[in-house]
Amino acid sequence: MSFSPLIRQLVDALRILPGVGQKTAQRMALQMLERDRSGGMRLAQALTAAMEGVGHCSRCRTLSEDELCPQCADPRRDDSLLCVVEGPLDVFAVEQTGYRGRYFVLKGHLSPLDGLGPEAIGIPELLARVSVSHFAELILATNPTVEGEATAHYIAQMLAGKGIILSRIAHGVPLGGELELVDGGTLAHAFAGRRPIAD
Amino acid sequence: MSFSPLIRQLVDALRILPGVGQKTAQRMALQMLERDRSGGMRLAQALTAAMEGVGHCSRCRTLSEDELCPQCADPRRDDSLLCVVEGPLDVFAVEQTGYRGRYFVLKGHLSPLDGLGPEAIGIPELLARVSVSHFAELILATNPTVEGEATAHYIAQMLAGKGIILSRIAHGVPLGGELELVDGGTLAHAFAGRRPIAD
């Protein structure tokens, strides 16, 4: 290793970023040092501010530095719809669909093998919120994985018979794909969920 | 955009890193916030320390926070050899070959179209260093690109007739590759530079 100690520390610290290995970290460190020191300082300040300042929204549990996140604080959103997702990035993804109801953000999915039961991912808080609010529909938008399905199924069981419509986002073929590349399970869901073509 | 301001700032700041777009920056920011805040703080500190503390080695011009970088400060290295490279990452690459002479780090390569002449990349400093030192050989290890070749050629012209051996790293087929995948120019160099097989 032939870098000086400060550069070596920076390279090591950059490796905590997902998908960044030794070579990429070196390139990042030297590019900032040679061409963009003000950008590097801005990044350091943004990191400090975010790591110290960002907590969780008291209502939906997503990441936010305010008591309420932008989605919970917005009075124009539809209070009769609640969308349950596995993490903050999913909120961002669902926002792109045009959905304008409320959110509840779990801490991941049920995973008994990793010791993650209902308490660990925040299901009691979800049930508490549902019991004091008046949602007409709860959209379960956990990931289309085995764990995500199990989590959605568990939540649906806990809320059955409470007069709330429980829905699950549709499984099917993604837009822009080719049928021959779609896996059998997905295609089976797409067939089972087929709908008549509207005139 | 549905992130709170501090998270948005962090995502924007992460995009100065080479190869990091919007989606990757979001993933990086949320992963640090959810799983590794101490790592994020360490990164912020390492960034601040490096951006403020790292300057250039007074002798070889590579990045270093000390007056002399580790390569220039090491008394056991061979003072008769000088390797000229285009940037600090190249020092790291050359170190892996086992080379244990001295270095001079240019600021890139000659590029008249971008207004980068000999002064801009540090050639006067190189000539000054060569004139006060006693190098037996100068190894021109600029990149094997048109600009790198031109830079090596220019330096060789400036130092011709001073009694120093001027050498250029060999061009040829890289180890582990396949001939059919090597471009014609490289293969032509490999043929022109062929050597008898030692017994």
Structural class of chain A: alpha/beta
Q: How is the quaternary structure best described?
A: homodimer
Order of helices and strands of chain A: HHHEEHEHEHHEHEH
Within the largest sheet of chain A, what's the order of strands? 4-3-5-6
Cα-atom radius of gyration of chain A? 22 Å
CATH architecture of the largest domain in chain A: 3-Layer(aba) Sandwich
Kindly report the greatest chain-chain contact and the residue count on each side: A-B, 56 and 56 residues
How many structural domains can be distinguished in the coordinates of chain A? Answer: 2
Beta-strand content of chain A? 5-15%
Query: Got a strand count of chain A?
Result: 6
Q: What summary fits the major beta sheet of chain A?
A: 4 strands, parallel
End-to-end gap of chain A: 69 Å
- The number of helical runs of chain A is 9
Describe the fold and architecture.
The structure is a homodimer of 199-residue chains. Chain A has 199 residues and is α/β, with parallel strands linked by helices. The first copy, chain A, folds into 2 domains: 5-53, RecR Domain 1 (Helicase, Ruva Protein, domain 3); 56-168, Dna Topoisomerase Vi A Subunit, Chain: A, domain 2 (3-Layer(aba) Sandwich). The first copy, chain A, is built from 9 helices and 6 strands; from the N terminus they run αααββαβαβααβαβα. The first copy, chain A, has helices at 5-14, 22-35, 37-53, 70-73, 88-95, 118-121, 123-132, 146-159, 184-192, and strands spanning 55-56, 63-64, 81-85, 102-105, 137-140, 165-168. In chain A, the strands form 2 sheets. In chain A, strands 4-3-5-6 form a 4-stranded parallel β-sheet. A two-stranded antiparallel sheet of chain A has the order 1-2. The longest helix of chain A has 17 residues, at 37-53. The model of chain A has no long low-confidence stretch (mean pLDDT 91). Chains A and B meet through helix 1, helix 2, helix 3, strand 2 and helix 5 of A and helix 1, helix 2, helix 3, strand 2 and helix 5 of B.
